[in-house]
Amino acid sequence: MTSPRSTTTCTARRNPPRRAREPPSSSSSSSSSTVAVAGAAAAAPTQIAPFPLDDLLLPSSSSSFPPPQPYSNTSDASLNLRVFLRVRPLDAAPRPRRNPSGADSKLLRGRSAPRPKVAKGKSGVCLIVNSASSVTLSAPPPLSSTSALLDSKRIKSEVYNGFSFVFPPESRQPEVFDRVMDPLLVDFMSGKSSLLVAMGPTGSGKTHTMFGCPRDPGMVPLALKKIFSYAVGNAARTTDDNFPRTYYISMFEIYSERGKGERILDLCPDGVDLSIHQLTIKGLREVMISTLAEAESLVACGMLKRTTAATNANSQSSRSQCIINIRCDRKSLLDGNDLSLGSAVLTIADLAGAEREKKTGNQGSRLLESNFINNTSMVFGLCLRSLLEHQKNPRKPLQKHFKNSLLTRYLRDYLEGRKRMTLILTVKPGEDDYLDTSFLLRKASPYMKIKYSNLDDFSGLSSQKRSNLTLICPENFKRRKLNDLELAVENCDASANEDSRESKRDIVVDDSEKLQEIEPSQVLNSSSESLATLDSKVGHYDDLYAQLQRVTRNEMIMRNFAKALWQVLKQYKQKLLESEGAIEILKETIGKKDNEIMELQKKLEELSSYSSCQMPLFVEEFSCRVDDQSTCHATRPQTANSDTADSVASSDSRWQNNVEPIEQGSKNVLSRDYGGKNIEFGESGVWEISCPVDLTESANDPLIGSEETCVEAEGVASNDTASDLHQIGHKEEVNNSNTDCSYSLVLESPKHPAKVQCSERLLYEPHGYQEINQEHNDSKGLKSAQSESMCNGSSKDDDEGILSLSGNKGPILANDSKRPLGSDVLLNEDPETKNEFQVKELPEREKHDSTSKPCNVKKSKRRLLPASTMLLKEFTGPDIDTDKPKQERPKASAEGTGRSNGSISLIRLLNALPK
Ligand SMILES: Nc1ncnc2c1ncn2[C@@H]1O[C@H](COP(=O)(O)OP(=O)(O)OP(=O)(O)O)[C@@H](O)[C@H]1O
Questions:
Q1: What ranges does the record give for the region Disordered, renumbered to this chain (predicted)?
Q2: Which residues pair with 198 in a beta bridge?
Q3: How close is the Cα of 204 to the center of ligand 1, in Å?
Q4: Which residue of 178, 180, 393, 785 is 20 to 30 Å from 595, comparing CA positions?
């Protein structure tokens, strides 16, 4: 093992301080004095004296600030990122010592300047401290009237609130330490890692705040002092819970050499260029420190090694981002086992300040350095801004800006909110610094809204893994390195601390025996190789982990999809079952209905057979009553090609049988039917069925129900399976005879031979029936015709010649053979066709006319003109306006019978007919 003291002996400043050109600002004197101090420090490379901490460190109790609280124990409000603001004195001359009689008083004697005060309203100042958490930034007054006009709309002053604390220019380092670093140290000692970053424009005092100078030490030396005072105190108190702590320091800087990309340099003595992989910096030396002196020497050595250069803005401007890690390793010595309980790392980052080319006057390589510095500052700010926006709106992804610079890659856990970070902003209050100060405050003040509410839970597996690796890798390297170093130390420095070496040799006793036979360089090489192998494995594990995450996510997606699909399928299955149930119910219903239909059909058949056998009433009623002796014919006399099949037998036995004489002398019912007879059509075509009727015999019969006489016909296919015959017309012809009428039906015959039954009824009922419903089924069970008449009972008043209607309900009986006076038939005197039922085929023209009126049996019901009206029209002329609406007709007859003139005339006419 080596000691920090030994590493300081080979100090060589890589970038020796150069004297800067005189900056234009008024702080030139202070700069030169600072350089003088720094030069003095560099002039004694062999031995770096420890910082005079004791006489400068103010006890917390003597400070006006309250005692420090660890951040982790504070209230919820303090869970935000803590942003401190430190205002550099306008004239940053070295401050007078509190105790001028101290050891270093010679350096400052005679050069002590009064502490610069920034008074409110004092000219030359753009930043005024309002309170402990607020400042006001005022734009400097314009230089000329023209620019005053241009700048008239510029914001004159801005107030920035919410800082964790604002350190005024006169504040001293211990005060800053108490406020900023002490709480971090408390957390650090209790095992929590944290980061302190100093940000600000060049020359604003970042390095001064972090490292200070021998007379005015900054946060790092003060923290080391506190750490070791704590360690000594605990050692004096025997043990610290049986958990002895071991501290290590590692330092490195990230810089850019002539703009050739970023590099990492180990700031420890004999440090070399390093590389970064993930969060691990390969080859970074970590030196164990056991005393304050060792630590201070190591830090001083690193500061001397850090790249600095003089610019117009800062005589010793940092040209790199410097990072110091102080690691505390706790071990358990219980049961004699050396078991690590984990490490906490306190990271302190002194960033190079953003700079303007105009101010720094940089050229060449310095200018390239400026670009690198500004770029790193910008990426750092972008990371924090992205974290803030992500926390404000979690739907916004956390941008991976950290990839754009080595510094942000190394500090990724802090920049993504997994570990606590504290910012200290340093600004210059001069008017010349207005732009830099304004830029910094505008950019960085919102960062105080970043929250650390879920520090413990937020670190996922990946983060945890990275953290472990970060801790493990240096530890492994350190162990191997320590073995090597210990061997070297054993050979060259036998008077070193034997106890310490012995204890460490015990830790690695097995390895050391082997390593004694190996050259140190070989050990180093093998260590580097092992580290490289480990790094590659880490990379491999990272890839595996990323793949695992992808697979897990895909699995979740597929699982959810399968669940949703399963639900849909279940719903469909349920619906299917319901449908099947409904189908079963319907099937049962259909079966029942089928049974009912079968029963009804059976009943119907029974009724049909009964009616054909027992009740010839229908046949009789639908028989053609041309006369008792005549026969009916269905003919086609007028067609050209009707020679062979013109005349069709129309008189069958049933027809003849059906034409039975009815009770003679009975005038109760008179029915005249066209139909009931079967006429067979041999060919398809349009046929006309006509029957002349002699009305002479029934001229004196009382007429009832004549107004509602209907004619229906139905074609029946010969095979009794289909009904294709259509009534497509209805002809009525009136001849100049009051005894003859001709009634025709125009039928369309199908291709198949068919039978036709047609009927027309005129009912006479002196004593009356009000309603007659008839239904006919032929012997083959086919419904053939239906006729319905409204009839009223009637009585004939011979004296008056008036047919009075009245009646009772009753069945219709068989008719007599008297020809009725058809209400809707016309008189025809044609002797040849008299009493013949003819079937004629219509000419083509008439076919078209007829077929254009679709007619089927069911629709053939129509309301005919009352027979009385037709007859009266014929005989009396148009005097009787029966077609007019009822309200336009005369209300009552002259006789006061309440009957219409038409009815009276009809009755008179009927009475006048020869019997
Ligand atoms: N609070 C202060 N009190 C006294 N002197 C200060 C204070 N802050 C800064 N200075 C002095 O100002 C000069 C510049 O400070 P410093 O080098 O720390 O600036 P910086 O921000 O680190 O600049 P850069 O980013 O260029 O490195 C130094 O000489 C330093 O001593």
A1: 1-41, 90-119, 634-655, 776-915
A2: 350, 424
A3: 5
A4: 785
Q: How many CA atoms lie within 13 A of 875 on its CB side?
A: 20
How much is the ipTM here? 0.97
Query: Tokens in use for 130?
Result: 């309002």
pLDDT, tens only, 571-605: 999 999 999 999 999 999 999 999 999 999 999 98
Mean pLDDT of the chain: 62
Q: Does domain 12-41+81-95+115-457 have CATH number 3.50.50.60?
A: no
Cβ neighbours, 10 Å, residue 492: 10
Q: How close is the Cα of 323 to the center of ligand 1, in Å? A: 17
Index of the ligand 1 atom closest to the CA of residue 169: 1
- Residue 526: count other Cβ atoms within 10 Å of its Cβ: 14
Q: What is the mean pLDDT of residues 653-674?
A: 35
In 3D, which of 761, 792, 768 has the Cα closest to residue 867?
761
Domain boundaries, given as residue ranges, for the chain: 12-41+81-95+115-457, 460-572, 616-864
Q: What is the pLDDT of residue 571?
A: 93
pLDDT of residue 342: 75
- Distance (Å, whole) CA 725 – CA 678: 12
pLDDT at position 612, please? Answer: 58
For residues 801-811, b (16+ Cβ closer than 10 Å) or e, as one string?
ebbbbebeebe
User: End-to-end alpha-carbon separation of the chain, Å?
Assistant: 158
For ligand 1, whether the C-beta of 352 sits within 6 Å is: yes
pLDDT of 904 > 50? The answer is: yes
Annotated binding site for ATP: 200-207
Closest CA to 81 of 190, 171, 194: 194
pLDDT of 646 reads: 34
How many residues make up the chain in this entry? 915
Interior CA angle at 655 toward 654 and 659, to 5°? 110
Our answer on whether the CB atom of 92 is closer than 6 Å to any ligand 1 atom is yes
- Measured CA to CA, the distance from residue 481 to residue 523 in angstroms comes to 8
Burial letters 769-797, b for 16+ CB under 10 A, else e: bbebebebbbeeebbbbbbbbebbbbebe
Contact at 8 Å (CB) between 97 and 104? yes
Q: Using CA atoms, how far apart are residues 309 and 13, in angstroms rounded to an integer?
A: 12
Q: Tell which one of 208, 380, 440 to mutate to probe ligand 1, the residue whose CB is within 8 A of the most ligand atoms.
A: 208
